[in-house]
Description:
single chain, alpha+beta, Glutamine Phosphoribosylpyrophosphate, subunit 1, domain 1, four-stranded antiparallel β-sheet, 9 helices, 32% helix
Amino acid sequence: MYGIIATWRMALEGISEAADMLKKSADAGDSIETAIRAVEDFEFYKSVGYGGLPNEEMEVELDAAFMDGDTLDVGCVGAIKDYANPVSIARMLSKEPVNNFLVGAGAEKYAHRHGFERKNMLTERAKIHYHNRVKETTENTELKPYSGHDTVGMVCLDDKGHMTAATSTSGLFMKHAGRVGDSPVSGSGFYVDSEVGGASATGLGEDVMKGCVSYEIVRLMKEGKTPQEACDIAVNTFDKELKKRRGKAGDMSLIAMNNKGEWGVTTNIEGFSFAVATENEEPTVYLVKFDENHKQYFEVASKEWMDNYMATRTAPLVRK
Length: 320
């Protein structure tokens, strides 16, 4: 059995490529890296990689992580600038005996030393988003981070039972320079154990980090819960805990897959989508919906929804 699951519709092309690799017995590490890089390289996805939205100083700072479920090796980068594929840098860091989590200038020096591609990640399209956002904010109003924070996170299983997890994001639009969210933090933005399964998160990193939700999902699967049961328990319990203690809970959407290729997804927001491909299922995008009792269910994205999604993201922008 093999499979790959990812947050958001933007992962579809990447997981489709990974699924083709997995069909041919490719390694879970190579497959997930390929899938994440496809998202990083597509400039119209404004929350990851090239074309990612900048911080308040109009600089694109990227976070990424890679974890090997066989060895539990982890590699992470935070607030790295001017490098094309931070997930690949994170994967190389996972093979180092120490110094596995590098940030800012240190991460950039490591990437340069190891020959990674330097690239200006700030696109003209992202500049227009930035300037329009600044203009929308009056002089008397503090410029606050945009609420969108669509991390691409994935969990992958190959036909040899090897599992991996990886993430990549440009984080909050208009964030403070140097801000790092949950995405590159082991146990929060991701976690994987080939003997059990893996999970990955997208949402408001400052809140996801308060609960180590990805690790909690894997722990619950280890106790015998299905991926869906584990996601439901971990996300809904922590959502309630945050609301009890703080009066509110930020966006949290978690995906999971176990070492049998079974998957689960739970979110506390409207409008979440995810993509999955397994030995028994072609690459598919699902939308998470809620019934009148606020019980979630999944619906395959329609062609109309898919067409509108891409049209919206590639539509020309005008500077206001």
